[in-house]
Task: structure prediction
Amino acid sequence: MTTLNAAAPPGAAQPGATRTPARAASATSAAAPAVAADPALDLLPPAPSQLKAWLVRWIVPALLPLALLLAWDLAVRLSGTMLVPSPKEVAVMLKDFTVGGVYDDAFSETLGTHWLKSMSRVYGAFALAALLAVPLGLLIGKNALIRRFIDPTLQLLRPVPVTAWLPLSMIFFGVGPNAAIFLVCLGAFFPIVINTAFGVKSVEPRLFEAAAMLGCKGTSMFRQVVLPAAMPSIFNGLRLGHGIAWFLIVVGEMTGVPEGLGAAIMDGRMLSRTDVVIAGMVVIGLTGFVTDRLLVVLNNRLLKWSPQHNA
Result:
């Protein structure tokens, strides 16, 4: 009988024995900490409420632009300047720029024409830059001999400001939209090619080893390992190039282009119409912001697997 009791599992009731309330309470208190105590759960921050999450997502980003608008309006009112229009005057100009009916001058109801012309030049030049820069960046990043051959020339040309190419672009392509497309393409090209080459060079060697052990080699290694691993850097380069393309459209449309947001801004400057200048700047900024958000959505969709690009 003694042997059987020794072989029973710990905590099991002994045959014939009576479990007293005190003994049961002691057993319960001994088992409770094993269930409740989880230090990892205590370290997690509490989940924010829905209202707080909504405020952080939609209201907080709008605070700084609203503060800048208020500061602009106060500065114009307090200084009494006639050279800089107030936000209200710019809003009136935007309305006339879009649908007319206010000033009825050469700028009235022309926003759609200027916007479409600038969009076609920016995205034509950006697509051309991406088509040239992504394959070249992949080659530079993957092949050391090509990198040694091309990279010094790229690093030599990259610091040259795009505005310095303005006279040469007018000689090469004449006065008109082709010179503008060349300048925008040139400005977008360098960040895309450099980020792509960096992304390929930064691929972990362990990925190559693991893929080789699974039988991956040749073009399939490039397609299934190098390209996906470099995609975050490629998208970073595309976003940088996209922003620079909008930045340079005003410079590009200084080359005697009759229509486009940059041309409208230059005409407004020549006529001392600062309301037209600022209205054109607002349209470029809003268009660049919306299109950048679309790029971010595409980026997050294609890079769901990357924790750095899924925010």
